[in-house]
Amino acid sequence: MSTLNEISSWLQQGRAPKVKACVQQAIDEGIPANEILEQGLLAGMNIIGQKFKNNEVFVPEVLIAARAMSKGIEILRPHLVADGVEEKGTVVLGTVKGDLHDIGKNLVRMMMEGKGLKVIDLGVDVPVEKFLDAARENDAKIICCSALLTTTMGEMRSVVEAVEASELKGNVRVMIGGAPVTQTFCDQIGADRYTPDAATAADVALEICVA
Ligand code: B1M
Question: Is the pTM of this model over 0.90?
């Protein structure tokens, strides 16, 4: 079995120490960090997601797999982000209210920090006003919202509306993303930008901050 397949397989079994060891092995084998992420860790998590959907695995298994994924990402982190990059702007980031998924958000943070952006990470289950307050307090250029549930996506509309109704209008952009989010949804709610993955989110955020 290839090292990337091993990573995927151990992740599905929720074996964090094995995942960490295999990620390190893949790095030592010279496999690029984004390939380890996409074809090892994310591939495994996608299979878990599919099984979760089909009721073949349940929340505890998914949680253990998610923990194993986070441990793998920790090992990968220095290889995904460039060190010592100069700060280029401030971004407020969080998973919207009602939503506890944070793996994608954490990847977004990692990629943005790697681009030299200062990221104020508000965590998960973030209410609308907290996004706005943090943007004011930190003079942020962007509010970034992540959502993984169709039931919580609507919170993003509330963030857009709150920014529009405040003094932040015109000065703070709203970027959105997460598995159920689409460009069509972004257009519907009037958010400034949708990006499908963490790396693109970091590119776009940098573009906005240095504009
Ligand atoms: Co949940 N879950 N979950 N879950 N979970 C999903 C999202 C689901 C699709 C599974 C399924 O049914 N197939 C489903 C949602 C269905 C829907 O809404 N249509 C679901 C459900 C239903 C639930 C619960 C309701 C289950 C229950 O309790 N009955 C519950 C909700 C809890 C809550 O939030 N209130 C729940 C709970 C959990 C766990 C706690 C067990 C765990 C989360 C652990 C954690 O995050 N710390 C979990 C997990 C792990 C998943 C799956 C399996 C994996 C999500 C993940 O981390 N993917 C997921 C199925 C799936 O997505 N395949 C599922 C890896 C991550 C890197 O991807 O976050 O999409 P993602 O991030 C991507 C992009 O989306 C993008 O960048 C990343 C890639 O580069 N991105 C952005 C993300 N945010 C961005 C922001 C941006 C730009 C890009 O700009 C701002």
Answer: no
